[in-house]
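Class, look over these structure tokens:
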Amino acid sequence: MSTSTTAAPPGATPGAAARTTGPVTQDDVVTRSSARHALALTRIGTAVVFLWPFTDKLVGLGYATPRERAWLAGGAPTQGYLENGAQGPLASTFAAMASPVTDWLFMLGLLGVGLALLLGIGLRVAAVSGTVLFAMLWLSQWPLAAGSNNPVVDDHVLVILLLAVLATTLAGDTWGLGRRWAALPLVRRAAWRRGRAAGRAPRPGR
């Protein structure tokens, strides 16, 4: 059985060729350990942004959702809001969308994105899904209307920006399962699931 190796470029340090294969890690993207830890804390905090409303609407924690209106108690997580709470020029459109299907899509979206962030896997998919979810919420509240606290950047926009940062900095590698996720054959074959190309170039001086 023959094997092939990649020759190191002239002037490269010994062993540089070996580092040209394998998944990119957060160490290659974010060089300061303090920054990696800050991103990990941000990732976990953002996971709570999705998992808390999922749990509250599922069982009724008594905060935004009383127990008698919980999904498990027969409540509808989205239908009442879409029919009566949506604002702006798209209010009628959101009201027409209200159905058990929107309940399932909303709850599964919260759960899926929240778990991905908590575990540190599939952050690019989570970022896209979370962006779609929060963009819909933004449209349903229509902050552009007079009287809005901030018509330019509100909490929905901030979450969308955070998701982009977490996905592009591979924030799941620190205090998460991002490195194991990157090593899976399925992820290596489809680099978009990781968020960066599967190969990496040697870093100068390493």
Notes: DSSP finds nine helices and no strands in the chain. The CA atoms of residues 113 and 126 lie 5 Å apart. Residues 1-6, 13-20, 197-202 have pLDDT under 50 and may be disordered.
